[in-house]
From TrEMBL:
Name of this chain's protein: Putative Glycosyl transferase, group 1
Source organism (scientific name): mine drainage metagenome
One record GO biological process: lipopolysaccharide biosynthetic process
Keyword Phosphoprotein: no
The keyword RNA-binding is annotated on this UniProt entry: no
């Protein structure tokens, strides 16, 4: 089967969706019977709205038609309004419809309202958690639940093979775009109760970063907060290897890839309660109300009081996490959807 695969999310500073497209493409390429045709335009910046829309609505459907593919897999939650090739669409979450605070009205109209209408045209829809499936069905009334399929993300082998080091001090790692729903501020507000502990934020910035920096200055902890911005795979692995704990205080997640990566790496983690994180955390990761600063302070203080105990618990969970978050398993399930969509 010939499949046109939207690889545009892998261009440039790829975040969670880029990781999904990159790793799924690799795993699909190892399966027999799938002739994958990656489609991308490296000269277009996927972070610019006008370039993104031009790719989605003009270049992608043209390239898919020229590829003579049986299926077009749109991997990043958007799809063309007109396509000669039947579409399998991955909707990672319903954040554009559920979460307030996306201030650019045109982006909210495109990613939210327009895609809400277009998604019902997809032959099959992939999503990444049971939570996201419920959100999609609630907020996209035109979608038939029989065509929504939960296929969890995998975690790259490098995390499963990572050897944890001692690091250079007590460090909280927070991974993800620095935006309000990721809730970095609760970790910052916990820092005054954690003397000697520093926090490292990794991920692309939004104006929310300035708000977080302001909070850190007000609390007198700006010297213990570091913004690294986007980092590549090697630098990210180094941070997982040398940090003491991953904190994931998000108010809304469709999956929570950094949490899955931490579990596969054997890095202790603490996560917010709710959204998809309850699924991804399983029974091994403590969960706390996202905005309860006192509870975050207490949980982090407890972990830093005995980090080796936390590491032993995380190490005991590692094999089960590696088995659960498998890109090969995700690729096999996705390939089966291609076959369903093509009939």
């Amino acid at each position: 089967m010939r499949v046109a695969f939207d690889a545009q999310p892998t261009i440039g500073s790829a975040t969670g969706i880029g990781e999904y497209a990159r790793e799924l493409r690799r795993a699909l390429g190892e399966l027999p019977g799938i002739d994958l045709v990656p489609l991308s335009a490296p000269s277009l910046d996927p972070w610019r709205f006008d370039r993104r829309a031009y790719w989605d609505q003009v270049l992608l459907p043209i390239a898919a038609a020229r590829s003579h593919a049986t299926i077009l897999h749109c991997t990043s939650g958007t799809m063309p309004a007109i396509s000669k090739v039947p579409i399998v669409l991955t909707l990672h979450d319903a954040a554009w419809l559920r979460v307030q605070g996306h201030t650019r009205f045109y982006a909210r109209a495109y990613f939210g309202a327009l895609m809400k209408r277009l998604a019902a045209r997809a032959r099959e829809i992939v999503t990444v958690s049971a939570f996201s499936a419920r959100e999609i069905l609630e907020l996209h009334p035109g979608i038939d639940e029989r065509h929504v399929h939960v296929i969890p993300l995998g975690v790259a082998d490098e995390f499963a093979n990572l050897r944890l080091g001692s690091g250079d001090g007590a460090t909280i790692l927070v991974v993800g775009t620095v935006e309000a729903r990721k809730n970095l501020e609760v970790v910052i507000r916990a820092l005054p109760a954690l003397p000697g502990v520093r926090a490292i934020s990794v991920g692309p910035s939004t104006p929310y970063r300035d708000a977080c920096a302001s909070i850190a200055r007000e609390l007198g902890v700006e010297d213990r907060l570091e913004f690294r911005g986007y980092v590549g795979r090697d630098a990210l692995l180094e941070l997982y290897a040398t940090s003491t704990v991953l904190a994931m205080p998000s108010r809304y997640e469709g999956f929570g890839l950094p949490l899955a990566q931490a579990r596969c790496a054997g890095l202790p983690a603490i996560a917010a309660r709710g959204s998809s994180l309850d699924e991804i955390a399983g029974d091994s990761v403590p969960r706390i109300d996202a905005d309860d600063v006192s509870a975050w302070s207490e949980a982090l203080a407890s972990l830093f009081a005995d980090p080796e105990r936390a590491r032993r618990a995380a190490a005991a969970d590692r094999a089960a996490a590696v088995d659960r978050f498998s890109w090969r398993r995700a690729a096999i399930a996705t390939a089966e959807l291609y076959r369903i969509a093509s009939t």
